[in-house]
């Protein structure tokens, strides 16, 4: 199964979702590779930090270019059960190829950075991918450092998600508070970080179940 994490704003939310989903799937016993197509290489650095800290369950991660993504995916499918792609935020060969190859596209929206969200560009990018990949399942996922985000911001994202054809708005807002940031810094998933942020753990576990439903 190929999961592509995309956004239209940049920032850490996209990479945090990609890394946590890859970690949870690996901890569930699946053979997973995390591909980093973002110029910031945040997911690759996260994986290296995880390895350097001596965690017993490493996450296999690799940098991949836009030009090499499609042919490399054909090879990787023979060796891994699941592929999670942290795609570039901008419209480019890599971000387009990642959506074209995906079974599920997770659109990460940081409620605290809505002013940086390039809605029309992201919408066009996803719609073009759907034209060639009609089986693509789209999930719009919100995150916020606030336990109770502004209802007005949630309404804006709800309206945005309705512009996609057959997109699912994940109802629960992922709590991206201090614990999630520290876990990300240390190469951990939020489920591995102590002291536990039960709100963030529950949200990420629920998202994990929704993304990998029936797989």
Question: If you had to describe this structure to a student in words, what would you say it looks like?
Answer:
The chain is α/β, with parallel strands linked by helices and 215 residues long. The chain has a single domain, classed as P-loop containing nucleotide triphosphate hydrolases (Rossmann fold), CATH 3.40.50.300. 43% of the residues lie in helices and 18% in strands. It contains eight helices and eight strands. Strands 1, 2, 3, 4, 5, 6, 7 and 8 form an eight-stranded parallel β-sheet that branches. The protein is globular.
Q: Name the beta content range.
A: 15-25%
Tally of individual domains: 1
Q: Main beta sheet: strand number and arrangement?
A: 8 strands, parallel
Query: Please, what is the oligomeric state?
Result: single chain
- Per the CATH scheme, the topology name is Rossmann fold
Structural class estimated from helices and strands: alpha/beta
User: What is the CATH architecture term?
Assistant: 3-Layer(aba) Sandwich
Large-scale geometry: globular
CATH fourth-tier homologous superfamily: P-loop containing nucleotide triphosphate hydrolases
The H-and-E topology, N to C, reads as EHEHEHEHEHEHEEHH
Protein name: CobQ/CobB/MinD/ParA nucleotide binding domain-containing protein
Domain CobQ/CobB/MinD/ParA nucleotide binding: 3-110
